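User: Predict the complex.
Assistant: Input components as received:
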Amino acid sequence: MAALGTLSTANLNGGQKLAVKYFTVAVALFGAQVLFGLLAGIQYLNPDFLFGILDFSVNRMLHINAMVVWLLFGFIGSVYWMLEDEAGVPVVGLGLGNLIFWIFTLAVVVVVLVYLLVQVGPGELKSIWLINEGREYIEAPRWADIGIVVCVLVFFYNVASTFMKGKFSGIAGVLVMDLVALAGIYLAGMYYTPNISMDQHWWWWVIHLWVEATWEVLVGCLMAYGLIKTMGVRRKIVETWLYIEVALMFGSGILGLGHHYFWIGTPEYWFTIGGFFSALEPIPLVAMVVHAVFDAGHHKLKSTNNPALAWIIAQAFGNFFGAGVWGFMHTLPQINLYTHGTQWTASHGHLAFFGAYATMVIAFFYMALQKWRGGVYMSGNLVGAWKWKWAIFLLHAGMIAMVMGLLVAGYEQSQIERAIGGSDWVAYFAGQSHRWFMQGMFWRMVGGWTFAAGFVLLAWDLMTIGKRETRPALAVQAEAAAA
Amino acid sequence: MSQTQALWWASESFWRKTAIWVTAGSFVVLIFLTFDTVKQITAGGKRVPAYSVINNRIDYVFDEKRNFQVPVIGPEEPLFGKKLTEEEAAALVSHGKLTTQAKNCMNCHTLLGNGSYYAPDLTKSWLDQSWGSKEVREQQMVEFLMNPQDRLHNALGRKMPNLGITEAEARATVAFLKWMSSIDTNGFPYNFKPIDQADAAPAVEAAPASDPAAAAPVQQ
Amino acid sequence: MLEPVKLADFFTVFFSAASVILFGASYALVFAWSRVRNRPRLMPLAYAAYVGLFVSVIVLAFAANLFNNTFWTVIVMLMLIGYLLAPHAIWYLCVGTHADELEDGHADTSAAGAAPAKIFQQR
């Protein structure tokens, strides 16, 4: 074991050594997401900025693709992180897992370079295979799609065979099934059709069923592991609640797909299905609130890792406001008719992705760093604690400013462009040049810069936290030891 | 402990089974609905017309019974004055769709409301009054797509970059946009005022009650 | 079957929809807090939050024209009943799933720990 407070891979098991590689790339891609988000935001205020060099479409594509990939890297890393611990045996096929990490990272670099340097191609199938698929969130060219599926399959092989060889816990069962779904659903986005309705219909399978179903359950698995490890909650209880959450999330989430099928050519019965499951949406949130209060009343919280705990609390609030409040505000078709495809969606998307997923992955970064530095102290009075505290503050203040700016812009847009103007060219620009819209975009930019400052501080903190700390981590209360 | 065992509804195994059944059940329902939906949205049906619809006039008028605007297929009005067979039309629309993907349209525009919010929605762009009149519309669209950077867009200074779209690609894209405007989108976009397409021959569907502006409740 | 929201009602819809979720969470939060800390005096506050939720749902239903149609009226009724009962159901589930933890004496013996067990036994 290396000295306390020193970054050393000797402190990590095999899966964790691989995990921290994934985490490192994830942080870099998070930075890319922030950078290209800033560029795209500036273009709203100053359309000539980088016009013809890096157009809005390129910046925006990189902004959202970087997000999907950094979260995916964060999730994969988190699973490798817990894998040996959870299964009780070393990762099966770790060498292959390592190789795939390098291939995956290289592929991401190539895709980004092609996005930046080639940008667009002729209207032929070969452009879709080699340059850009031109479908929001899954723009990655087809060769990269196939690569992603291969990488996820190897990842799946690592996970499933490690659990098979060691202990196949309840968390393992949910995780393995969830990964099957995650890989399988991606295939729905991998074909070309001239029919835009069909295209969007299957596209939502990937987007919705990833983001609002399988990712949620993946986070549920990570959270369950985290609760056992950091708070010493008993496995039996945690796993029962994981099943309850799966039932609630998949029960409301799978057919919740309906709220995306209002306006894309799909039949009218999706209004009823979408409406019904939108009304169910808050139930998992209510369950989480009640259970969290119940748990807090029974387990005396003694945090062994303050930054991680703070980000987990941020996740609870972010998920509640981003997915719950912001989602429900415009989910009923009676109002979604006007908000569909406006900055409303952008407001909701920013808060929900950050609140539900980015926060969770960042919490895992901190858990990993604690062990990477030899189980260093990370509770109250941590040396240099101002950095993580200011990072969390700036990231949230920036996010809230962005979300509010976009909300005001979307509110105006839904009225001026959608309801009064009828969504044609003139109505669109009437909405875009309205005072509220312009001010919303200005405040979004202020929020963007604040968020970027928070990111810089976060990255600095991740590199340095615990460095000058000589105290060991507080012990986890040993309730779990009995179970 | 006996009391604990009696709580079957709170046991791990009960919830494991419930989770599996709920997930499987939802998924089976989704599969059934998917079969029906895919059937209904296959090109050539009522909701999503065949590609050869680009040989006809397409309008967007208010339907009293459904309480929103619906696309109406009108008299023959071939795109670029040339009537196409089903295969030719499908090939042209497909070329247009590929162009929209290869040029990354969706990262500025929305199509059927999905995509990005930096540029106008294209769902009914074929019917947009900004193209002037129906006589010059096709040519306007082609020229715009090929050299958008020189055109007046708006007072904001926001404009579309030159994406190297060839004339063939531009014509195909117009075909795709015309076809897309014929999709029944349950009344999205709302209150859209289409370009005047009436001509000497009176169209049956253009009844006075179906004027979208008159029926629109938010009309000031 | 859909009656789109009138322009004048946009704000009402957004505000009442947000209130539904916020009141729903407040109700769940105070309800659970009152039970877990064994403070029955807080319970009226929880139901006050539910009243807020009830009013928000009704306002939303009128603004979004949900009562114009049987299906959407049923959805409104389900929301009113479902959101009322959900915290109760989840609470029983919490007590049930943590039952052997409480019986094994792992939990602290303070009033906080004993309260849910008592509620559980009353059933």
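Confidence is low (pLDDT under 50) at residues 105-123 of chain C.
Let me know if you want any component modeled separately.
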